[in-house]
Every structure is written in structure tokens, then in C-alpha cells.
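task queued by scheduler; priority normal; single chain, no ligands, no partner chains; default sampling; output format set to C-alpha cells
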Amino acid sequence: MEINNIKNKLFSQSNLTAEESFSLFSAIMNGKLNEIDTSAILISLKIKGETKDEILGATKIMRSKSLKISSSANIVDTCGTGGDMSDTLNISTAASLVAASCGVTIAKHGNKSVSSKSGSADMLENIGYKFSDDPKKLEDQLENYNFCFMFAQYHHSAMRHVINVRKALGTRTIFNLLGPLTNPANAKNQLLGVYEKKWLNTHCEVLNELGSNKVMIVHGFDGLDEITLSQNTYICELKDKKIKNYNFDPRDIGYDYISLEDIKGGDPKYNAECFIKMINGEYDQFQKIVEINAGAAIYLSGKASDIKEGAIIAQKSITEGKTKDFITNITNE
């Protein structure tokens, strides 16, 4: 397709087809567009509002250019968009570790901090987990420990063509939406938090078209890109190729509301220390929100019939010290 025609269509505020988006982002990720053009494209998309087809096309090219690892069909990821500006502790990362300690195979995708004080990679680094860019080692970790962390910078080298533009723009772009859709292990089951309610169905529809199995896209009434515990949560769930929307109230499964102030995060060292306190049974509010999110991951893996049963399994793993033992194993590996 003629890239100039696609650009001009976008600059006139017209929506692109998935094929046009694929061609456009292929040019961007192959370094064929200059930074001025790339900036204009990203801002045009943001002002117009990214569509499902535009996200789908961009996701397909980003997936095709990523460094992949082999995995079993039942793996789960808990990667979200970030960008909810809440500065909470690393809930989804903690939930992924707890779920893995319960026997769920977690291929966690993530990065260092972009909009928060501590990203998933930052927290993991501070509890002693060592990153690897070797697909074989990551596959071995999945096999031996039910867990690996795929550091986004190692797996998406094509992003080097947009890093300067993203920094210069200093605002969310379509790339914030693509990260959770581009798991290098091709995770078919995902707990995916989004920073705005409007992306719930879009992300669910994109993952459905890409062949996902069981997915929960979540956004808290309080704005959190997690299943929250301070209010209810909007959930868009994909199961058996069908999408349904509902609101989740944690009180329905026996949890009381907490204040987000109770789980406020800090720098990576602080967040890591809070995680260790939590798995030692010394941080009740954080443990409860982690139990619910880990419970959802356990449900998505098929090891629980619903979030409630999953949360009970997660709580048991923490209180019996299994999660603590698991962390010792993966950080001494």
C-alpha cells in the first residue's frame, strides 16, 4: 500500500483499515519513516481516537517482529497498559508471582517504569529476579518454575525506531495500548488492565480476533488498571469466543473495601520491600487485592471455577509460605 495515501487518510481524520494500519506500522517499525512523520501519525491517531482495526493492524506487525519463546497452550499473562496514574504498589506483578506459586504457568510480559514510579521490571529486579534475553532460558524457567518474565526491551527491538518520538511527545500513544497485546510467548489467557473504560471491549475484541482463549479486560471504578478493592470493577470477559460485560463487586466474594491510600507505592526498592512484607503475612490490605487479582489469573488458567475459588487458593499459598518458597527458588535460580 502507498504509505503517503495512508498517512493522508489519517491526517484527514479518517479511520484506517486493519490492513492499512499494518502497512503503516510496518513502515514505522522498519525505520522507514522519519521522526516528524511518526510524531504526526501518533498524534493524529490520538486526537481522532484509535479504533479496533487500527490497534489490530499495529498489534499484528508488532507481534510478527518480536523475539518469541515457545510455551504450552495454557499459559497466562497479567500485563496491563499502565498509565492509570494511581501510583499504587505493583499489584499485577505481585499477582502473577502468587498465581505462579499456585501452579499456574505465568509468562509475564512487562517493562521498566514509564508513567509510574516502579514498573513490573523495576520491582522484580529489586526482589532479586534476573532478566534474560535468551529464549531457551526463559522456556526452561517456564518449565521448571511456572514463571518467566519477558522484559519488553529484549523482545521488541523494533521499538527503537519510536523511542525518541515517544519520549519527546511525553503523552500516551497507541503504543501504550499495544504492549499487553504483544506477549512474546503468545499467551492465550490474559488478565489485562486498561487505564480507561473505553478500551475494555476494544482490547477484548482484538484478542478474540487474534485467537485468545480466556481473557478478562478490567478497569476499576476508581480508575485502577487492576481488579480494584476500593470500589467495583468493570470486567469485559472473553470465553468460548463470546464476550460479556459485567461489574465485579469484591464484597460478593467476602472482601471489604480498602482505601487506595493503603496500597500507595513508592520507588522500586519500597515496592519490593512491600511485596516481601506481603508474602510474609505482614501487609494485609496489599495481600487482599493481590489475592483477588491472582485469583482471576488462577481462574483464567482453569485451576479455579471462578475468582472467589482462585482467591482462596492464592490466600492459602501465601499463608502457608508456598509463595515465599517460590520467590526464594526463582531469585536463587
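post-processing summary
- The chain has a mean pLDDT of 94.
- The longest helix spans residues 284-301.
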